[in-house]
Amino acid sequence: MGVLSTIFGLPLAPVRGVIALGELLRRRVDEETASPASVRRELEAAEQARAAGEISPEQEAEAQQQVLDRLNVTNEQEKEG
């Protein structure tokens, strides 16, 4: 039975590899977006853009809220999984 499953499973090997790669990339992105250094960089970038006059204080607040919302979603997903 092992020989038959190997023979019939070979055409699916590339699909399994792509799925594994996708899962690896998703985990890496989740780790990066949740890292304190990444969050700090994004918040500092918004602050610097406001200080340089590139964005308004309202836009800075919106950018900060988006970063914090994403962080909250990531934290909730970690608690569930």
Global Rg: 21 Å
On the 0 to 100 scale, the average pLDDT is 87
What structural category do the secondary elements indicate?
mainly alpha
- Helix-residue proportion: over 70%
The total number of structural domains is 1
Count of individual helical segments: 4
Report the span from N to C terminus: 35 Å
H/E element order: HHHH
Described by strand count, sense and barrel closure, the largest sheet is: none
> What gross morphology would you assign?
elongated
Region (Disordered): 31-81
Biased composition (Polar residues): 62-75
InterPro entries: GvpG
Protein name: Gas vesicle protein G
Verbal overview:
By secondary structure, the protein is mainly alpha-helical. The chain has 4 helices and no strands. It has one domain. The longest helix is centred in the last third of the chain and has 24 residues, at 57-80. The model has no long low-confidence stretch (mean pLDDT 87).
List keywords for this structure.
81 residues; mainly alpha; 4 helices; 86% helix; elongated
What's this model, at a glance?
Residues 31-81 are annotated as: Disordered. The protein is mainly α and 81 residues long.
Record the SSE blueprint.
Elements: H1 2-9, H2 13-34, H3 36-51, H4 57-80
Helix pairs in contact: 3-4
